[in-house]
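Progress note, project year one: complex with phenylalanine.
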Amino acid sequence: MDALADIIALATTEVSAAADLAALDAVRVRFLGKKGVLTERLKALGSLPSEERRTAGQAINDAKDLLQRALEDRRAALEAAALEAKLAAERIDVTLPGRGGRPGGLHPITRTLDRIERIFAQAGFSVTEGPEIEDDYHNFGALNIPEHHPARAMHDTFYMDTPALHTGPGGAPAPGALLLRTHTSPNQVHIMRQLQPPLRVVVPGKVYRYEQVDPSHNWMFYQCEGFAVDRGITMADLKGTIAAVLGHVFGPRRPLRFRNDYFPYVEPGLDASVQCILCDGAGCRMCKGTGWLEVMPAGMVHPNVLRNCGIDPEHYSGFAFGAGPDRIAAVRWQIEDIRHLYQGDLRFIRQFRSTMRPPES
Ligand code: PHE
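Model obtained:
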C-alpha cells in the first residue's frame, strides 16, 4: 500500500504540473486509462488472497476517486485560464481612434444649391420646393405656352400615361395631362396663385427632359427657379440680383454679359453669361470658343403669366430666372462631363471634400 501512496503522490504532482488540457489528458491516460497504472492495480487484485482483496480494492478505488477529482479541478482551472487568455487577447480599446475611416463630402450639386440658396436667403428670398409631377397647365399653359405653341418643342417632355390626379382650371381629368416637369418655372404659378405679392422665392429641384444624353445633357438635371413680384420691379432689379449672385458664385471680378433670349413666360427675356473661367475669354473647349458661359436664363415675368395667376400686371411686375446648378457646378469645378454628377461613382465624388474650394471663393 505504500506503493499506492507513492502513485497518488506522483499522479497529483503530474496533474498540477500539466500545462494544458492535452498534457492533462496524457496524465489521465497514464494513470486511469485502460492500461493505466491504477487500472492495472485493480486488475491485479485477483491474485491477492480474498481477505486482503476487499481493503486493497477499497484503497485503489479511493485513490482513483482522489485522482479523478484532482484531474477535474485541474481541467476547470486550465479552462478558466484559457478563457481568460482568449478574452485578454480579444479585448478592444474602444477609446482608440478608428482606423481607415474616410470622411464624407457633400455632392457638388448639393454644395452649389446650398450656396445659391444661402445667397438668396441673405437677399430676403424664401426657399421652397414644388412637385416633380406636374400637369400640363402649370408646366406650360399658365406660363403662356398654349397647346401647339412651338416653344413646347424646346421641352422634350416625359408624359405620364396615368389618369390625371388633378387638372388645370376648368379642365376635366384626362390621360396624358400629367408629366414630369421640364423646368422649375411651374412653381412661379403655384406660388403666385397661392400668395399675394410682394413675393421673393427660390425653388430648387430636379427637372426631366426626354433628351439625347451627352457630356452636357442628361434626362434629369437640376434647376433653381427664382422670382420676385412686387410693385415697381424693373429690369434693373433683375440685373442687379443676377450680378450679385453670380459675383458670389464666380467671384466679383468675373465679367458678366446679358443677352436677349426668348422664353414665352418672360418679356423681355435674357440669358446671363459669365466670362469663361478656364480661358478668361480667349476661347477654349469649355466655352466652345466663345469666351462666355451661359449660366442663368431670366427675364421680366410676362403680363399674361401674372394675369393667369390672378395678379394685376397694371400694378405689379416681376422678374424670374432659372439657374442651372449642374452647369454652374460643372463650370466651377471644370467637370467636362455632367453625367459624372449623376453616376454616384465614389472615385468622382471623393474629389469633392469640404476642404476643396472652388476658384475665387
Ligand atoms: N424655365 C427656363 C428653362 O427651363 C429657364 C427660365 C426660367 C427662363 C425663368 C426665364 C425665366 O430653360
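The chain is about 40% helix and 15% strand.
The longest strand covers residues 220-230.
No further modelling is planned for this target in the current period.
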